[in-house]
Each structure stands twice: as structure tokens, then as C-alpha cells.
Amino acid sequence: MRALILAAGRGSRMRSLTAHKPKCLVELAGRALLDWQLGALRESGIQDIAVVRGYCREALAGSDYTVFDNPRWAQTNMVSSLMCADAWLRQGDCILSYSDIVYHPDAVRALATSSGEIALTYDRLWKHLWLDRFEDPLSDAETFRCDAAGRLLEIGHRATSLAQIEGQYMGLLKLTAAGWGSVYDYLQSLPQAERDGLDMTALLGRLLVRGTGIQAVGVDGQWCEVDSDEDLETYTELLAEVMPWRHDWRWEETA
Hints:
Layout: E1 2-7, E2 27-28, E3 31-32, H1 33-43, E4 49-53, E5 66-69, H2 78-83, H3 86-89, E6 94-98, E7 101-103, H4 105-112, E8 118-123, H5 126-133, E9 142-146, E10 152-158, E11 168-175, H6 177-188, H7 192-196, H8 200-209, E12 215-219, E13 223-225, H9 229-239
Parallel strand pairs: 1-4, 1-6, 4-5, 8-12
Antiparallel strand pairs: 2-3, 6-11, 7-13, 8-11, 9-10
């Protein structure tokens, strides 16, 4: 098993914090987001890790990870960054990680052992985190539904009620080489302008419409996403207390 961290974007909602460095190097609790990710992946047993760079790419030297570059990061979305690592993804099973999330190694372990050529993790206890971040969770949370066998049924639409949300997608996926091959072929069939604007959640939704099977692996908290500087402030405050999503944060000392 190997891993790929998608870190090409700037993260403009972080404002001045990303004026001179990529979003993944913003610190949470004195530790860069990228270091949280590398630690969790390695603690879960994955040592072969790559990072897709773009904005301020020179800041991501790659001394202990392989690097791929998305030279068109400013004109493209995350899916295009994924395609920049095509050769890496064709060599075996791979965990994909967004670069603005923090997660427990157990989430990686659960995803790595999941069945299916395409799989993702979702948080069943998502409301705890969203209530800390937003006055109205429905202002940001998206629809997510899966069946009793863990097959994903719906993702990424605007939710009008909590009943439409069985969890929230975390930004962690697994692709087998065969799974990536089918995704790549589909992406290659799209006009470039359409492909350039495609984000990961939209891609997953399209794959469902096409009948592609996606396995959903539920976890209970122990993660967060940093979308804005407000998120960072919220998490920093919560770290001084008992974070409702963390359950057990001792792993940070050994990750």
C-alpha cells in the first residue's frame, strides 16, 4: 500500500496564512498539516508516500516523500492534480488524502483493508464537528447515504434536512490500480475544460451515476478538516479542552 497527498492548491480561504506557503504547511497545534498526514500514514504502516505540489511548490522539498507537480494548479481543480500522479497510481493500491485534513491512523487502517476498487471513509459522528464550526450545520454539510452493505448511494448534494446526511466524507479514499484505471479512462473521455473544473466529490457523484461501485467505510470522529482560518482558530481552542471528535488524541505523540 502506498499513499498520495493532494497538495497543489493555495487554500485562499486561509487568507494571509497561505500568502507565502501552501495550505498543507499551515500549522495546527504547532505541527504542519502535512506532518499530521505523514505521521498518520506512517503510523498506519504506509511508508511509500507521494505529494502533488503546485502553489509554492519549492516549499515542499520531498526529502522523505516523492513529489509530482501540477504546473496548472491555478487553472485546475483537485482531480487534475490526481491525474498528475497517473504513473504512481497504476503501480498498486493507494490511499488518497486531501492536504487540509487531520486524521487518526485507524481511519487509514480501516480504509486500507476495505473491499472494492474504490473506497472512502466517512464520519458517522460528523454533527459534533460541524456544530463547532457552523451555527447551522446544513449551511455546509452535504448529502451522504450508503446502503446496509456499505455501498455508497449518494454524495455531495446540498442537504435540506439532517435525514439526508448519514455522515460526511472526510477526504480519504482508496484506489486500486484497476479502480484508478477505470477512473482515468472516464476522465480522459471528458473535454479538458470540464475535467479542469472537476472536484473530487463531483467526480465521485458522477461515478455513482455511471454505476461504479464505491465502498463507504464509517469511522467515529478522530479527524478534522481545515477549510478556513476560522476553522484553525476553532480547533486551536478545542485542543485546550476535550475535543468531541478526537476521542483519543494520544496518537499524535507517536505518529
